[in-house]
Prior knowledge:
Protein name: 8173_t:CDS:1
Strand content: under 5%
Pfam family, one: Tim17
Number of domains: 2
Order of helices and strands: EEEEHHHHHHHHHHHHHHHHH
Oligomer: single chain
Helix content: 55-70%
Strand order of the largest sheet: 1-2
Structural class: mainly alpha
Number of strands: 4
Largest sheet: 2 strands, antiparallel
Shape: elongated
Amino acid sequence: MPPHEKDVENGGELVGTKGLKPFNVTKVVTEISPSENNNGNISNGVPKLDKGEVKKPDTYKAILAHAITGGLRTYLLAHGARGALNFILHLTMMLRKRKLRIGRAFKYGFFGKDALRFGLAFGGFSFLWKLINNGLRHTRGKDDMWNGMVAGSIAGLSILAEKRERRITIAQQLFVRAMQGVYNAGQAREYFHFPHGDSILFAVCSAQLLYAYTMQPNTIPPEFLHFMVKTAGVSRETLAFNKKFVTTKMPIDVEEALNILRKYKGTEKAVKLVSEMGRHPVTIPCAIIHPTTDSCIYTDIERFYKVFKDILPVYTALNTVSIPLDRIQKSAFNTVRSSAFLATFVSGYLTEICLHRNLVTAGLIAWDHKYLYWITGFITSLSIFLEDKRRRTDLALYVLPKAAESWYKIMYQRNWIFELHKNADVYFFSVAMGIVMAFYQHEPEVLSPIVRTVLRKFAGNN
């Protein structure tokens, strides 16, 4: 990788990419959390470039040695990091079961297949990238973005060392990060700009996920669906019951509804209401959605409080790690704001669903439709404006791959799209890493701080 100071000259104009319109680094949009702004590497929202010289191997023998040592170093770091995480998780699980066996947890963590696969994937990527990137530079006599793109794409094949389930997740996240880099690079060159684009993206993706949560739960990754069900507090049986009614409009099985109430200890009022509602209601009543409480308002307030209380420690940890004392007050405010956003997002969706039921009960409307759940999801997603502007992009990029997966599965079910190749995750990852590594070498400012940090720690600068 070339010295960073050679990338920026003449008041911040990039000269490392020949033929492209020069851009001003200060216009690059990067999402930087408060905790990332304390290491002295941020100035006016723009990451400072590393000023250290990077020594490059200048013979094929030196290039091979450099790639081998770099790959081994990365393997050890990745294996150790994954092993430590698995060790802690396994130890925690044993403590809960009161069967503490440190040796077994250590063996599972550091000598299990998980750590080995993770280390091979990262180590293999580092080895191939360093070998091909430096080899192309030495052979071509040029140090440009094409070297990084070709090397990153080929090195991306190392993801095959991981098991398929994890490959998909990693490929999704890296692909959206690559697209973020492309967008930031284009915006910095003033090719395009979308005001509140991150918030709109979050709203559209969240609307899709909330629609899928109610109408197409099989299109959401299982772990994320479990998180959604647990956070919303609406049972899977209720979701399935509502989906069947909305999508088929078949007469309701009252006994099935009563079984849901019995299982979740519904109130006497809820049982009576469901018993008397008949087999052809306009919509599923709130008595089935929140059977343990008769008041919609109480339910929504209780859900807001529970989500806020549960997420507060998480945001507290994220916002208070390694910050100076003079920023404690701002950190506390950011913690409360982020917690309020998520609590509003969850409780707001349930409030809208209850409002629809109450309007039906009042006789003001007499319909229910599956796309209502998409619209209500979009409306509640506008709570993103409660969140810090600098966090909105990360939130949007978090939900984007999950929403895209749901969209794809729904379209495939309806024969609107072709089936992706079984190794599509590998192809997506390779393309993503080609883009990411090209930017990492010549325009690191357009990549998100977390991507730059991970690459710098594991792959180094060259």
